[in-house]
Amino acid sequence: MQRTFGVHIGQQNLEASALRSLWRRLDDAGVDWISVWDHLYEAPPAGGTLPHFEALTTLGALAADTRNARIGILVMYPGYRNPALLAKAATTVDHLSGGRFVLGLGAGWHEPEATAYGYGLPPLGQRLDMLDESVQLIRSMLTQERTTFEGTHFRTQDASCLPPPVQERLPLWIGGTGEKRTLRMAARYADGWNAAYVGPEEYARLNGVLDSWCEREGRNPSEIERSVNLSFSLSADAAGAARALEELRTRWGDEAVPRLQAGSLLGTPDDAAERVTQYLDAGAHNVNIALRAPWDEEALNAYVTEVIPALQRGR
Q1: pTM above the 0.85 mark?
Q2: Which of 12, 69, 205, 274 is the most exposed place for a label (fewest CB within 10 A)?
Q3: How far apart are the C-alpha atoms of 32 and 56, rounded to whole Å?
Q4: In which domain, by residue range, is 156 found?
């Protein structure tokens, strides 16, 4: 499977014009993948104090503004939108993008935004049940002429989804690192799996867990694309790299720093290729940097125009 390199954008603390300019620039530069996230508030949580754009409407603009990169969502929480509606939205974005869309699904986690918007956040076990039903329902909606589904949480009655997607099989991805249920669902249903902010050793271990579930589910592991998101904390120079580490501590707190360091690109662009290669060696097919504004623009430009092309030449 070809190795690809992308950018995952948190659409917060940016003007819409800046977002559109960013992903056009990324697409023109030749990145392989551009995705956004599904949040109603900022992440990390700050009480809804930062400007933040909704995911589906953002995806429409991303689809229309770009021409080359695969585009995606990592990941959508079915508790915010009925999965039948998500299937309809995925088909629409696939047409707007000319068949470049990937739909990612996950169990959700952002309790402050869910509570603020009146959704609440059920216990994790219930959310995983919702995710399991959602993947089944959406797959049927995207591939069958009619879908009748009767689940505990979601249902449809003789529902159509016309027009069908441009892609014969619109990829469904599952995001998360839960070993007992999330990875098993990925093995059972998914075209791709994404993990966020884990170190290369842990990624390799989780990748092996997914392979084991594939064996138990009778699935060929090579059928599932593997990706990882790494927090982008590169800086143009060593002094900036030290400030970036301190910024991680300020944003997330001291206790979270070791985990975030493990799943971040830190240092300077000269250090980035070696770090990314560690994830490729651990089994990742796609490595994405995750952007949260503000970032070091000089470092981002160097990563996009120098590091990614060098990695692409070596794939």
Answers
A1: yes
A2: 274
A3: 21
A4: 4-313
